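Quick one: structure tokens for this chain, please?
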Amino acid sequence: MTSGLQGTPQIIERAPVTYAGYRRFVPPDQIAAFADDLTTIPRWLIGKNIFPVGAPFFMYETIDMERGYEMVAGFPIDVPVNDEGEFFYGALPGGRFVSVIHKGHPAQIIDSTRELLAWAERERLEFDHTETPDGDKWACRLEIYLTDPVDVPNMDEWETELAFKLAR
């Protein structure tokens, strides 16, 4: 396996971030379809004269590797917006996170995630998550898509920040 990680993971402080997004249960084979709908968020916001102020993200709220994932897709915004249909206003928590950049196709992020989790285990870091009967519930487990596909159409060149909240 060739690593898509760029450098060594770092422990960083992240401020809370307000966002607009949607939440869905996503079977393991449907993440691409979930991602395809990401552009609906800025279209909805622009219709309200609100513009994203940062990179889009996916947040994995609950992970069950066999059944699927409870996921949020979102864009940071700096003004509140009323919930409408499946779109809602929320806030990512601040705090200590492990962060690293994955460079490569989004389909390869799972390999980089495994490497990040293994690194954290070696470092004896504890993530802010709880195992439940519905799956592993995370306080904040992010994939932040740093590359604009219009500027860089080759997905093998995309950069994605992995940022997972630590327990302390």
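The mean pLDDT is 94.
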